[in-house]
Amino acid sequence: MSSPSFSPPSTSLQRQAIENARAAFARLPNGDVVFRQCINQKDTVAEIMKMTTERYRSHRDKRSSRLLQGFQHYTLWLQNISGVVDVAVQTQAGIGCPLWAPVKFVLQVSKYHAQVAEKILDMIQTISDTLTRFQIYEKLHKDTILQIALLNIFTDVVVFCVVTFRYFRRGALVRLGGLIASPFKEELAEVTERLKTHAKIVDHTAVATELVRASEFRNHMLSRERLDMKLKYEQWLKPSNVREVYQHLLSSKLYGTCNWIWAHPTFVKWNNLSNSTASDQLLCIHGTNGCGKSVLASSIVEALNSQQQHVFFFSFSGTDASRQTLDALVRALLWQLLQEIGDEQSFSIMQSLISRGPPISSDLWDAFDRAASLVTEPMYWVIDGVDECKDSSQELFRQLLDLLALHSNARAILLGRPCLLQAISPTIYAIEISFSLNKADIDSFISSELSKSEVLSVPELRHSVSKTIQEKSDGMFLWVKLMMEDLSKSASRYEVIHRLRNLPRGLEETYRFLLGQLVDRLDDFELRLARSVLAFTVVACRPLKLEELQYAHALEIKLASDPLEERPFQDYLLVRPMQKILHVCGGLVAIRGGIVRLIHLSVKEFLTRPEGAWPCENDHKAKGLRVNLEDSHRALATVGLGYLGMNESISRLQLTDSLSELWTWYPFLEYAWRYTFHHLSRSGAPSSIILSKLSLFLRSEKSVSWVELWPILLLDDGSTGSEFQDLMDFMLWLQKSGHEQNFSEILGNVFNEELASRVSAFGEDDVRTKRWRMIMELSEDEDWQIQTKDGDVIVNVQTEDRNLNAESEDVTSNAQDEFADITSGVRTATTSTEASQFMALLNHATTLPLQRQLDWLLRLQCQLHRAKVLTDPLKLLLRIILQKASSVSVNVLWAIGRFYERLGKYNEALEVYHAALAKLENREVPIKFQIIYCVGIIHWKLQSYDMALEFFQKTLIGEERLLGTDHINTLYSIEWIGNTYNSQQQFSEALEWYQKTLIGKERLLGTDHKDTFVTIYMIGVVYHGLEQYDNALKWFQKALIGEERLLGTDHINTLYSMEWIGRTYYSQQQFSEALEWYQKTLIGKERLLGADHINTLSSMEWIGRTYYSQQQFSEALEWYQKTLIGKERLLGADHINTLYLMEWIGDTYYGQQQYPEALGWYQKTLMRREAMLEANDGDIFWTMERIAKVYDKQGQYDKALEWYQKALTGMVATLGADHEKTLDVKHNTESLIQQISEGR
């Protein structure tokens, strides 16, 4: 029989199978007691067979034994298949009958007939041979199609049993006759074949169903994997949620408005261009505040979407830090574009990005370019609020024009205020949103608003309201919205007319008008809330969540309350906070998606005007709503410190805890943790209250958690370095207030107490103890301390001619170390196993988890700090770090660069710094300029002054743009330009830059700050270089007076100022005064640094030189020899400074006319110099000249002439024939030749 050409629906098959099963079951003797027992009993078929054979005493029969063994063989299988079939029978057919109940019944009622048992065993074997995949059956037994097949099996088994039962219920003679007419085997053949067929169907169905399910599962998992990958990519890329912004703007749009843009001649021409240049593909739309630019942008996006165009949207925001940079722009545009090009291609692009670690902006733009190349249809980039972008507007236009040049199918629309777009727009296609363009839309908007108000929509008022609003709107939707809201408050027609007569003009007058209304209608509590909401919303580092603002306000009230009346914190929380905040802020703020924002950037600009420009000068209460930035930062900082100190349960936060859960449990904690110190550094001079709260927090256990968490925040490239800069600014804030030392001591005590606590609780070898110990070691390392920019500043004291009298100053490392000590701490042999572990981690990572980066950074720092030299594993590690730089945070790379720099491995440090800068190529963030600054320092140390100057100037330009001209980092960059000119002996240029620095420091830090005195000191150094010694003395004395008062007489800065006063007297040949100052300096250095410190030895050396200049050679020799012993011990016998000193000892013997001794010291000096210096080094030839002079004095003229000629030849080669020193040696040589020729 052929198969039907179609299969009935599964429901029909299921119904048919159910009916067949029920019909078969109905043919069984349901009323029979034995059958009921078989249904209920739990004995297996094999057990029934055994009991039957025993009952009829046939168990010893060989045939019975074989049959019994057969049944026992299938015991487990029978249980398994019965369990699967029974589910289908009982749930679908509703028959409370186990599969093997009919079999048990037949075995029992047949009074043991071997033929019955054989037939049943054959049936079981038939099914067993076909149904072997129990795991599949059990897993799929609820599948409808499989249940149909299983019901058929049940039906066949029942039918088989019914046939068998009826056969053996016949009498013996009847059965015998039947066997002759139709053998029993033939009688069961049909049902047996049907059973065999249905069993195969079950198995095939199960396999097919499993394959289908597996395919569905794979598709489901693939879909889920793709969704997970998208979520992962989104979390990694961190695009701004511009979709929410777009939806909000679109919901604000009135139906039928903004259509004028599609008929505007400029827009039509621009949109229909073909074969256009990049600038032609760019359209700029500009208009004044509140004219509807953002809503127009969303309308354009909506219309293009409806045309099935590829359109991508971004909106800059001056009130949302997450939407203020070019980096945020490209992340958002790239993410939208990836949704358009298909999963495989977008995954490939994202995987390529991720494999290189945290992306730099150029990587993101390249990825956007790659993705855009996959779109062949027209596409539009709509970018709103370009005037609110903090990054360079020129860079924005350059980037867009470069992309448009590569993608002729792309169009870009920029919207913003005219102050930017009119000034630098590179396109000839521009549209100004004028009143005439907006008039129809404003009419529609007014009409819509009128319809919403019962009092405004009455015919007698509608026309006059509409006309007045339209005439005064000046094309500003924002103004219309605010005025319609105000008019809608009217309780009568009279009030409407009165309000219409007194409408303010323009946004500025409107904001003033609204503030006046607030003052009139709000009570003191409400005004306090309004002031708090406006202040916190304006200065917050990011838009505050409603709950965050609710907690911040509550804590502000609680902290200001009388301690005697203090209540539980919950009592201070606003009830119905959204309604209350909107009520007290008079339409100046909006709350969307649980986020509190100002309605427009112009509100922030209005509220934060300088006090002198505040328009409400005659209204004291209204003026109280002005947002004073310092006061507002102080208030938010106070709240932050209060919240950090509130919750005892977070005092022992471990870095393994879920931070997201912690932020949920404590609503204001995440903001307080990240930004409190940002607000502190911008809160003006610290008050006693602030300092007290800061001290309490730092002394508490909560500060421990903050210390451990902060490095992770710093490591996150996504943070753009703001946390790093916040820490810099906070330290400067403490320094300016004179409390830096006090708080350093507090933190030191916290470090020590926490270490002792961890050792006691966890033991020395626990990871928590080790991590804390490493953090302590770093904090105690002056080079590691988070520094401002004047760390490692060193003066390169310029050398004059080192003549026989040695009256000039020399370039020595101690002179460089002096200035390093003045400003140190303000900016600035691992084992093979450790290095190998770090290399393995880098080699097998794409993006390292921040916690892993932190732990390995701490280990690497401590090991390098101890090693002081680069072992082979560390050299290899450097190569791996550079190869895997994309997997490592910029801040980690910066720290590693600092490690190598401190080891004196400047080339290695430069490689790491440049790897970090490559990740920040187009990002304008503080850490970028910190690294550029470090590169400048290294070039300065390598005496590559032109390169150093180039990097310091780059730093200055960036920091002026990013931080402002009066920021301390900017001033340090200015100072370092002065240092570089000073090192090049361009003293006039150096003086100019130092004077700029001094003006800025006095304005920023005050005239009585130690950093101000450093610059005063440097001005003295420059005047000394200019040989204006009276001026130099004046500046050194000014620095000394301030430092003695501020720092004390034993501070290193004070001692250096004293020493330079001595040097100035020395340069004026006032040797007695110089000696007096040198001796004072020496006493202080011995007390502060110790007798064996290099700077102490420097003072001893200057005392020797002063005695020499007074021709007190014995005293000079005594001090030189003391100094030499110390330098040989500290620096080594072959160090350049040691050799200079040996030469000066020779000079002293020469001055005593002890020529053999002088010659011996000169020869030792020459021998060591020739061994360690290049053959053409000038120092070698100067020593040769000294040897020549000794031979001349001894009358050994031939030897003298020989050494003069060697010295002259070398000086001509190195200095040139016209150099002053060359000419001097030439003169001496010629004089000696003449004397020899005259017979001397």
TrEMBL record:
It comes from the Eukaryota. TPR repeats lie at residues 890-923, 1013-1046. PROSITE patterns: TPR. Keywords: Repeat, TPR repeat. The keyword Repeat applies. Residues 78-209 form the DUF7708 domain. Pfam families: DUF7708, NPHP3_N, TPR_10, TPR_12, TPR_7, WHD_GPIID. InterPro entries: DUF7708, GPIID_WHD, NPHP3-like_N, P-loop_NTPase, TPR-like_helical_dom_sf, TPR_rpt. Residues 256-408 form the Nephrocystin 3-like N-terminal domain. This is NACHT domain-containing protein. The lineage of its organism: Eukaryota, Fungi, Dikarya, Ascomycota, Pezizomycotina.
